[in-house]
Every structure is written in structure tokens, then in C-alpha cells.
Amino acid sequence: MPPLSSPLGAKGCASVVKPEAYEAWYDSPRGRWVGTVEYALLKSLLCPEPGSSLLDIGCGTGHFTRPFSHDIRGLVVGLDPNEESLSYANTHVAHAERYVGGLAESLPFPDRSFDFTVSVTALCFVTRQEQALREMVRVTRRRFVLGLLNRYSLLYLQKGRRGGKGGYYGAHWHTGSEIRSLLESMPVTNIVMRTAIILPQGTSIARAVELHWPRRLLLGGFLAVSGEILDPVPCMAGVRRIRQKKK
Predict the structure, then answer these.
(1) Domain span at 223
(2) Would you say residue 233 has pLDDT above 50?
(3) Which residue of 28, 73, 111, 223 pairs with 150 in a disulfide if CB–CB is 3.0 to 4.6 A?
(4) Residue 117's closest CA among 225, 241, 196, 9?
């Protein structure tokens, strides 16, 4: 957060943030704080196992792909339609993660290809949101997590109204009930929602509030939504351990 750009095939013509500028924002004191809080929330909801596989849909520069790859040390793939962002990602690999081109609405992978899937703000720029979610669920074996922009937040009042400002231009800001409605017809269960970045300014007061604010009160600018796949298949890391014990 802020979003990198509107992906190909998305609604409108969002202003495109250059990869270097996007990463520079996350390298600022406020950006580092925001990124750390967002990643911690995503990881806590996803709970990926070491050695498992993960797909980051709409990965952009790989800003969130890299820490997942570093922590999981398994097969991690980032997908994005923007060639410039993918070029940046490919030159900043953290731990053997791979990057491929593609659209969220038509993922180039077989069913249940990845143990875990993640998508950070990409859905905010996709016109066919239900189709993109169905594709995400289709390629997931166990759990998924979405990072979204929350309409019920101070950040929305500052950056999201009247079409949005800067990197938020053209973004769709979600509500919890909206996401539940999109997911209700899909084979998922145990939907959990949490928010972060209550006060987006990143001041000392904002950081203190963030430490004590109940994540269940969905008023933060960053809305994280996780779910489990019905009838999940074993995590590939677990399958490998079982096979090794049998030998």
C-alpha cells in the first residue's frame, strides 16, 4: 500500500507508479512501518509452512513475494501482467522465487497447484473480481489471503473518495460484507477478516495505536481476508516429509 498500478485488463486507467518509486516509498520510514505491519498480518492469517508452495497474484515488484520466499524457502511464484514490474522483481530475487506474466482472471496453472495463495491490493483494480477470486481458489490447495483497501477507514477518507488520489486512483475500496458476498458461492470456509493501519500517517501516535488496536475492529486502511479451501489436499511440504519417513 499504496497500490503499484492498475493491472492489464483492469477497470479504468489507473495512474501507474514506477517500480523504483513504489519501492522507494516502502523504503521510507513510514513505508517500512506500513509494509512490516501489512506483511505480519498477511503471514499471521495465512500461516504458510516451511517448504510449502505459494503463488502471489498481482505481485508487482515482488515487494511481498520476497519476504514470503525468504520465510517459506519453498516454491514461491509471483504473477503480474506488468512487464516493467516483473523486470524489477526478477532483478531483486530474495530466495529463488520465480516471476511469470499473467492475469488474475485467467491463471496459467492447473487446479490446486499451490499450497497457499496471496494477493495484495490487486483485486482492487480487477473488473471481473468474482472470476479472479474463483481462479485464486481454483489453484489453491489449502489457504489463501487477500490484502485489500478498506472502505471503512480513515485512509479511504484521505485517499479514496472521488475516484482516488495518486496511486489509489481508480482503486475499488472493499467492505467486509462485500467480500463475504463474493466468496459465498465458492468452495471455501473459515473466512477470517482483520485490519491494520488505523492511522496511516505513521507517526509515533499512529504506531502506538496500531499496537493496541483490536484487529477484529475492521476500521484500518488495510483489510486482510483469509479462508481455507473445502476438502483441502495435503501441503506438499508435508507430503515430502511423509515420503522421507517411509524411505
Answers:
(1) 19-246
(2) yes
(3) 223
(4) 225
